Records
---
Amino acid sequence: MNQDEDTTIQKLTPGIWHGRVIRHEHNEVPGQIILIEDREYFFPENNPSIFFREGSWVQVIVDDQGNQELKLIQETSISPTSSGDILRWRRPGQNPSRMHLLKKRHQLFLETRKWFDQQGFIETETPLMVQAPSPEAQFSLMQVDGETRENENLPQKPKAFLITSPEYQMKRMLVGGFEKIFQICRCFRNGEIGPLHHPEFTMLEWYRAHGSLRDVMNDVTQLCRYLSTKVSGTLPMTDQSWPILKVRDLFQDKLGIRLTGRESPQELLAQAQDSGMSTAVEDLTESNPDELTYESVFFRLWDQIEPELGKEGPVWVWEWPLPLASLARPLPDSPGFADRAECYVNGIELANGFGELTDPEEQLSRFQSDLELREKTSRQPVPLDHKFLQSLKEGMPQSAGMALGLDRLLLWLTGTKNISQVLTFSWEEI
């Protein structure tokens, strides 16, 4: 069976196939249309009395001469509907079908693991449920009740949280001597839903001990080039280097705003108004000055820039203001800015990486600032990860890490527009 043909009604190659009857008659010719995987196949029949009921499971046997035999496996009286599971992943005429995209997803995971193995990385698994999640104010967290009422012999645990990233635990592994590690895992961020967001998503995250941010940026480039041939097969990927832009340059060139990374939220807001960006920050001007945050002003302005990034191919955006990089090292030659880079393609953030902060005292100070900001913005309070901070005190080597959203990567590689099409179940389907 050719999975790449676009025709709706096709012929089967020799073999044994399984499918479901979805309707009778094709172009006024009596017979049965059977859905096998995500394609329709028509079997003419002049005797309607031997038609199988719609929704029934059937076996199709095709010999080397092309002769076809249909056998009933399981009869059902439930007709296929667009809202049910029969057609959820394989709606006829939808090309590519969701089933086809999920097969691409399987391929993506296999080839990603293969690439990292070839580069000498070790795949690791760290907990999805932690007692101390990221305190960064931009994250809305998913909390889990850790009580164990059903078994009194088990130790009682405090309430826990589903991870927004496996970052802290993976960095502790770097302290323990692992040098090249990667992980494919589920991450959770409450309230994030839309064409490019889902509350539960798949993250690819990796670290290089004794490596630099440029090392992991190069990993992204090489991985994407590899996957474009293995998964997409059609996405052109040149050998040209991906451009590296600076956040401050984009603000200056696109908005006429001079970023220093050390300006207050009020100063940044004033610059936005003076540069003709009043509409973008209009509602923020009415906020209580004490409640204004750097993040809220910055991203209102960033929204004016982001949609045009990477329209002609992937680009890197480097040197982010320190208030937006809680876990990245400061750049000694660029005061006020952090060694953080994001990869953009078609206006979509694909990957986010740091030259990692290794100073435990500086990290504690930033976490405390994050907690204050969470309180200021009425976010849920969280405990600090003291085990991570203690691990930093034991000496984390100079390192770099990168996080890449595999769901978004698959969107790009397949030309798909909505993240729900590359997920087995979307939020609305569970």
---
Amino acid sequence: MKLLHYTYRKLSLLLLLLMAVWGVLFYYAIIDEVMDETDDTLENYSEILINNALMDPSILDTEGTLMSFYKFRPISEEEAEDYDEEFYDSTVYIESEDEDEPVRVLKTAFRMPDGQFYELELMISILERDDMVEAILWYLGALFLLFLICTSIGTRLILQSVFRPLHRLLNWLQQIQPGKELPVLDNPTKIREFQQLGDAAVDMGNRSYKAYEEQKQFIENASHELQTPLAIVRGKIELLAENESMTEEQLKELDEIYTTLGRAVRLNKSLLLLSRIENGQSTETEDVSVDEVLDELLPDLMDIYEGKKIHLVRTKETEPFVIRCNLSLAQILVSNLVQNSLVHNREGGELHIATTPSSLTIMNSGEHPLDGEKLFRRFYRSIDGKKDSTGLGLAIARSIALSASLSLTYKWQERMHLFLLVKESQKKS
């Protein structure tokens, strides 16, 4: 989930919760205020009625209308002494409408000049109050919805503006490629944290690029410098092996040294080849038919691994798979992929090679899947990796593929290792 959407969702939920709490509190505040106003009206009306009764006792025998109904009831002195004024909600049956109507009731007691105590029961219809509360709730709900919509839109626009520098920084980071100079970061912002993050990213990118260049230069220089010493050592070992005074045990030890030296020579050549590929030194490119390269390489490679009795299944279409690449590099690419599938195939296994106008697929029998992320790293060897393997074959293949705008991927399918080589344009489409 994007940071903008996550933040927006959290703020919206918080805002919704706060608005809901505020709405409930506002509702009860309105209800309480309306109740107070109703009770004040009852108190004021009761004072008027009591004053009128004190001046004109005949009022004691009258009753009010429905909207402000009242009646007087004589009570004893003992009852008056313990009397407490009270307010409460009740209902009154309206015979003409055959239904109960809600009312607010006030009961209070007072004393007439002749010493007689009376109870005044005063009622006020609260239909208008309920209508007012309902109207307030409707307006409150509409206001709440409008406020929520406006706030949500405003919050989203503000968050988009706030996070825009972060999005520009992320887009810039995605443009960074190993071995290539950093693109220019145009990300003006007034937010100090984003400024610091951008500066740190640029600094880290520059240091990574510098370290990459230094490492690449070191490998290239070291490979060049090692070529001559390795060739000299190899020649001396060969001369020493021709010495007739060497015993069988010495010759055996010498053979092991020669084998180890051979692996060092192959490793040195592979590292030098990687450096040349990454430096773009193989600039001469042409249209190369992968099908033709396979036709040339497969007979020799199958002969080399004839002892493993691997069954080859070769399929191709009428139109060949043509790539734009240096011919020598294309041969190395195809050779490394096929040889890897032969070396790591089981005895009596299968090797399926298929080409289309846009892809090369190589599948070989396997026992367990491999780590697709680590497989193309330098010096990576699987659990069943061969001792004489340099661990650079697939890394070289990936580098050649990238230089030729090709995509090389791996996956485990139907208990077989599958390597797929396709053009980048075909992969995106």
---
Amino acid sequence: MNLLSIGGSDPSSGAGIQSDVKVFSEFNAHALTVITAITGQNTTSFGMIEPVSKKILKNQLESVLSDFKIDGIKIGMVYNSEIIKTLYQQLKKLKIPIVVDPVIKSTTGGDLIEKSAMVDFKKYIIPLATVITPNKFEAEILSKTKVNSKNTIEKTAKIIQKMGARNVIITGIEGKNNKIVDFVLEKNIKYLISGDKIVNTNHGSGCNYSAAIIFAISSNKTIQESVKFAKEFTYNSIKNAKKIGNGIMITNIQNQDKINSELSRAINEFIGIKNIYKNIPECQTNFVYSKQKPKSIKDILGISGRIVKAGKEVIVAGNLTYGGSKHVATALLIVNEKFPKICSAINIKYQNSSISKIKKLKLIVSSYDRTNEPNNIKNKGSTIEWGIKNAIKNLQTPPDIIFHKGDFGKEPMIIIFGDTPKSILNKLLKIT
């Protein structure tokens, strides 16, 4: 995949072109660049801006577009009207997704677009946008409205959409219970994507978000899937931010825990499945994903609490932690010892309807009988290990499903196994 970043050069590598290159590389995409301006800035202050000439800007664009198949474009800093109009003339006929990150000010206070260019930005750049990703401050400036309630968020998004952007995402809205909410206006559909708030000032999160969006869209993900992906990616970049210079921290996108990222995405998808609460057992649910060749449950990522049912609502009660799960992680560990490709598992409620669907599918299914459990095993509290070992001892291929029908005072259970959390979800959707 080839992704093009159009924007300013940031010598601190916290944002701009340098940041986008790091993000695209993290996704194994080839990063192409067109520089609109050179800035002098660091983590403490903003210095000068030197916009490139129309001639070199046009030549950069022509060079890239004539030689490479571009799968997606991100537009960041566009400093003046000359740059804006040149970009429009070169990009207006392209039939590829474009994400516009309307950067107006740097975190350290520098103006990233001339005030006189704002009219042309609205006229020429916003209509190019498959998605535009203003934060609350940027959305207010673009729309000339004040975001202070849910209704005005929607109103603001619609104003920006009428400027020509097909989809509008307003990021960084303060939510309840220490949450940060993104408001999404997808054509005629509106919804909110919520995430945990991290209280720190950082450099680069907006660039990370928009770069992740264009990657996801160019990978044929839906807008909603792309937003969730970008939000999770950006959250981790903020959580892992480093104090490299003397000022604010720079987001860190390299070497993110892919196991954490994949499991987080899967958990978000799981809790979004319609009526999934009906599949949460009384002991609640855990969803786990292991490192390669796990030696103990400490090498297996799980939820420190559980995925719990509250009426018809499903809530993640706890954080993703290595060693966070005991029972489901133990089951996975035993299966992985014999079938190393199996690295993920989830437990769901035992239901006759699910078992009937399982039997109709071409899945590898096994079970064990807890009534046959030896007393010494019960006393040791080693039921899971005993049961799973018995269920797989005669299997030649990895199991998709292992279940038991319970015992006196013991809840029956279904455990789904797979190589990744995504494969777990695919199986789950077939049997629920």
---
Amino acid sequence: MKLLSCPFALLLLLLSGSSAFAAEAIDTGDTAWIIVATALVMVMTPAGLALFYGGMSRYKNLLNTYAMTFVAYCLGSVVWVMWGYSLAFGPDVSGIVGGLNHAFLAGIGVDSVSGTIPTLVFVVFQMTFAAITVALVLGSVVDRMKFSSWIVFTILWLTFIYSPIAHWVWGGGWMGAMGALDFAGGTVVHINAGVAGLVLSYVVGKRIGYGKTPMFPSSVSLTALGAALLWFGWFGFNAGSELAADGIAASAFLVTNTSAAMGALGWMGAEWLINKKPTLLGLASGVVAGLVAITPAAGFVGLISSLIIGGVAGVLGFFSVAILKSKIGYDDSLDAFGVHGMCGIWGALATGLFANPAINELGKGLFFGNPGQLLIQAVSIVGTMVFTAIGTLVVVHITKAVTGGLRVSEEDEVLGLDTAIHGERAFEIE
């Protein structure tokens, strides 16, 4: 640079302190992309997921589902900057959790840099992940959980479950040190949320009339729109996780779209074969299944692998929802475990199979000469499932004690939570 060739200018640079050097470390292209990616992921929760879940809930609970998704994003935004970020990305404490050095973002200013982007951008990007993860849990208990209990549960779960697991994988914890691969959140987000939802659904119990009374979705159209918005936002989710505007981000973008499309086709094919009708709800669900499965692998696998990952995810998601749930008999209202848990497990294992060092030198799976990676992925899956299951159970019981129970009254459940809790109706049709 000509500036540095001038001794006087160099002296001024030296005297100006570390902030000037920090500014030099920032890549404006990377920063611009991650700001856009953050906005894309933000849209996924109060818009994409709210519509996706709201449309699948019964008409009398549509607004409640939307409100619980919306408040999850709000709570996630606040908890994250107060202490969640520090617990996830603060100085490592025994490989388990981050310290509270950055509580309320202490020590992080406008000149702080993470890699090639401002640390504040990284904080907000990761915040959107935390918010959508706890919002995904909601899918297991719509129609019957108290709004107040959901608020308390969200705060506790983000603090004691999500933040430590994020630290394990991305913040310098034991899973990352072990070599576990999770590019954008297959373990941290989807397995974590799916298992938590399953535990919560068992504790809260089945909906009144479950298995006896038809429970039709309020609007498949809203669900399909929500799936489209999730698909759109997922490009920020996966390609943004590279934290740079480069070739790996471009590859992640491509395979994310491919896996989503294959997931939709796989689900449609399985449903058409078994039930003789290809439904729009199935197509929308298949898109999400494909997106979930590619998430941990997005920055490590190529095109052919993404076709396989997405196709298998679509079929697996359908059988998990249509067959596995009925055989086990749990009431996971909107199939958080069947789609996010099961397809997240498949995606994490698939990363251990298909990670290609030609795509990303940080990942090398079984089919590229490293069978040990599959074992590492399996350990990370089991570790996450055990911790999440036990931890969520503890959080659930604390929530129950604080709020006097998790479930709405039978009268309110029959009436509908839109009216009983919020005093509103989604549609005025009279």
